Amino acid sequence: MRFPSLLLTCSLAALVAADGDDEFKNYNITNRPFPKGFRFGVATAAYQIEGAWNVDGKGPEVWDDFFHEKPSRSSDGTNGDVATDSYHLYKDDIRCMTEVGVDYSRFSIAWSRILPDGTADKINQKGVDYYINVFKELKAKGIRSFVTMYHWDIPSALQKQGGWLNPKVVDWFEAYAELCYKLFGEYVDSWVTINEPKQICHAGYGAGVFAPGVVSPGVGEYVCARHVLLAHAKAWRLWDEKYRPVFKTQNTIVVDSDWYEPKTYSKEDAEAAEIKRQFVYGMYMNPIIKGDWPEIMTKYVGELSRQQGFNQSRLPPFSEEEKKLIKGTYDYIALNHYTTYMVKARGTKSRSPPVSWEEDAQVDVYQKSTWKTAAIDWFKIVPWGFGKLLRWIKHTYGDVEIVISENGVSDTDRSGTLRDQHRIDYIKSYMSHMLDAIHDGGVNVVSYTLWSIIDNFEWTQGFNGKLGIYFVNQSDPSLPRIAKDSSKYYANVIKTKCLLDSCVEN
Ligand code: BGC
């Protein structure tokens, strides 16, 4: 399970503190251009932008309930009831995209806007019309649609029956996905079934810090993960057999990962970092690419479960049939990436640690206080981690096409700014490491999606977490979108295919 990289052949001096900070100390932004045909996009998600939470027949979903029940769950007491009102102002968003010159828009469909009670028995035509209008407007402006069917917003009616913990969710999701294929297939250029299973399951059903707020560490989060993978697989297979031949488009799942860097290049830390990567990224990508949970997870969770007195592993196994169903359900890897963590091996391992996914990995994870940060604390800016993650994905899963489906940074100031030089620096340096991974590492990255086109409702950060390249003035009732400096920088990159003033082929 060890990551057999060059890292292990380093000198003794490097054992002390030789991580990416040292390796890339004198790093220069690359002046090599983007490969021909490389595409650029921007991303959003329904709950974060649409608003109109109960308008035109939309049913409630878990985030509506989460914030209505307890407004203090968001850092500024706000919620997504109005968000950026893109339900009414979507043309303004698309105008911003046109100004920037993006090739595509990644956005999500709110399940309960088209199926108010979650089931395909009752379709809300006004909700359907809204998305068709968005597709048409994008098409009219020459922007492709990259559509996510599920960005964390299960309808309340289904949550009342257990949500992602109920095995029936696999069929509920498949039926919803089929309806999406039928209703919107002709407009969609590329599909995503589900966004970031880790956040759905760990934050939503483990730690309980995201909707629906179920606290079931080390148990519920694994049940959720199993159901998410099966739901994705069934929806993907259905599309592959029945709808791919008709629409000739692609479909995949978005899995997010930070980079996990060993504290030192000692064998123990290198192994610890690899274990953490398997618990984070491998947990979802291993079943999809190789057909099962990562071996190390099966081993660790199985052993700990026994020691903790469970009569079976807390990590529910897949049957042989399920393994076959899940394996291979992707057309390309869609990766969301934002930041990096350091990983340190534990000297002595507890025989019975607290029951949780984090503890199951039995390693220590932290971020360096010297790393620059944005308004959201965990948002440490560590560009070299992006390049390392991309190379590791190629090393671990083979030469698969990769789409960066999200990358971006929050403002440093919670009240927002139009002069967002730090975001320009972030985009430039993250993309530079990505380009190095493409040119030097042979990693097949074909497109990059910036999160986000506009400042929007950043979940539990509320409007304190502003990640847009357009500022949305929340104190003006007309919610105007105003260009930040970064929108001009990104527009120039798209136009010139170069991160600097000029690029040279080499
Ligand atoms: C999510 C987005 C979120 C972004 C920034 C991603 O994990 O998909 O919904 O806004 O991170 O935190």
TrEMBL record:
Subunit structure as annotated in this protein's UniProt entry: Homodimer.
Similarity remark: Belongs to the glycosyl hydrolase 1 family.
Enzyme class: hydrolase
GO molecular function terms listed in the Swiss-Prot or TrEMBL record: beta-glucosidase activity
Highest taxon, organism lineage: Eukaryota
GO BP term, example: carbohydrate metabolic process
Protein known as: beta-glucosidase
Enzyme Commission no: 3.2.1.21
Signal peptide stretch: 1-18
Gene3D superfamilies assigned: Glycosidases
SUPFAM superfamilies in UniProt: (Trans)glycosidases (SSF51445)
Active-site residues, record numbering mapped to chain: E406
InterPro entries named in the record: GH, GH_1_N_CS, Glyco_hydro_1, Glyco_hydro_1_AS
A Pfam cross-reference name: Glyco_hydro_1
Keywords noted in UniProt: Glycoprotein, Glycosidase, Hydrolase, Signal
